[in-house]
């Protein structure tokens, strides 16, 4: 069946598009692999040594939960982005501004934690002190019963977590959370738990060829696509959070009404929209 439409509001979000990075050997692993979206119960991990992959809030929270029932190991591509910045209203505005600037320029959205940072909560501080929230860097090979870490070797350790927006810093707020192995090392694990985020679920829009060479979509506004005035994206970029998507839905509806009416700003009269 083919449907025709003058305009399209796309609100497919990200939940149906979990992201798992390719690592050589990923198909050879004989243990269990799952993504955040597949998590059901912490008891499923009891007694199974678990490698948690990812540097976001989900990974840190799951590590603390899993540490109660099994041995864990944490892997991240860069130092965990803990920040001493207070998570207040101004912080929220700066997060949205940083994400919006990136999407308006056509860049692919960065991971959430690179912009928000991780709060240094009491339970996180305890997890750091106990060694649970200490990243061993990123492995470069998956084996049938574990993973191989390349070791630092002669490489210079990073001095920042490469944060963006309000979480950007010229130093590591909690340097003890970053402790890659010095030499190549194989770690045996029973479970690889991918907490590696999501991507925008936009495969159905591929025929429109919206992607820029940088991998993003050039946006005219928070919801309006620059290269296709028929299309609005709700749940993309700064609108990908639950709160952001709710606000973006209202913005998309208003912008669509303006385009359909040919008026720049519909006026509200007696509770109804009028032009």
Structural features, described:
The chain is built from 5 helices and 13 strands. It has 2 domains: 8-14 and 199-274, no CATH class; 26-194, FAD/NAD(P)-binding domain (3-Layer(bba) Sandwich). The protein has helices at 57-66, 89-104, 112-116, 122-130, 242-261, and strands spanning 8-10, 32-35, 50-53, 72-75, 82-83, 118-119, 141-143, 146-149, 185-188, 191-194, 231-233, 267-269, 272-274. It is globular, with a radius of gyration of 22 Å. It is an alpha/beta fold. β3, α1 (57-66) and β4 form a beta-alpha-beta unit. The strands form 5 sheets. It has a 4-stranded parallel sheet with strand order 2-10-3-4, covered by helices on one side.
- In round numbers, the mean pLDDT is 90
Spatial strand order of the main sheet: 2-10-3-4
Order of helices and strands: EEEHEEHHEHEEEEEHEE
Number of structural units classed as domains: 2
Low-confidence regions: 264-275
Percent of sequence in beta strands: 15-25%
The major β-sheet equals: 4 strands, parallel
CATH superfamily of the largest domain: FAD/NAD(P)-binding domain
CATH architecture of the largest domain: 3-Layer(bba) Sandwich
> Count of helical segments?
5
Q: Which structural class is indicated by helix and strand composition?
A: alpha/beta
CATH-derived topology of the largest domain: FAD/NAD(P)-binding domain
How many beta-strand elements? 13
Cα radius of gyration in angstroms: 22 Å
């Amino acid at each position: 069946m083919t449907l025709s439409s003058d305009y399209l509001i796309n609100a497919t979000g990200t939940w149906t598009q979990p992201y798992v990075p390719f690592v050589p050997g990923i198909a050879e692993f004989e243990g269990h692999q799952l993504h955040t979206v597949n998590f059901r119960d912490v008891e499923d991990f009891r007694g199974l040594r678990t490698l948690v992959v990812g540097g976001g809030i989900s990974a840190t929270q799951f590590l603390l939960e899993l540490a109660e029932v099994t041995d864990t190991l944490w892997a991240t591509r860069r130092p965990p982005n803990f920040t001493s910045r207070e998570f207040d209203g101004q912080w929220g505005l700066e997060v949205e501004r940083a994400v919006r600037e990136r999407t308006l320029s056509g860049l692919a959205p960065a991971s959430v934690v690179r912009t928000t940072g991780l709060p240094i909560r009491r339970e996180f501080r305890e997890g750091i002190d106990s060694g649970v929230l200490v990243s061993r860097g990123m492995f470069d090979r998956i084996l049938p019963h574990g993973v191989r870490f390349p070791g630092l070797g002669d490489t210079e350790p990073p001095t920042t977590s490469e944060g963006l927006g309000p979480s950007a810093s010229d130093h590591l707020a909690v340097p003890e959370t970053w402790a890659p192995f010095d030499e190549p090392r194989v770690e045996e694990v029973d479970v690889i738990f991918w907490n590696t985020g999501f991507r925008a679920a936009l495969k159905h829009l591929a025929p429109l060829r919206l992607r820029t060479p940088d991998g993003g979509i050039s946006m005219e506004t928070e919801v309006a696509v620059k290269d296709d005035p028929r299309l609005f994206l709700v749940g993309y970029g700064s609108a990908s959070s639950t709160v952001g998507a709710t606000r973006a839905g209202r913005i998309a509806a208003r912008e669509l009404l303006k385009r359909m009416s040919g008026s720049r700003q519909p006026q509200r009269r007696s509770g109804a929209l009028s032009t």
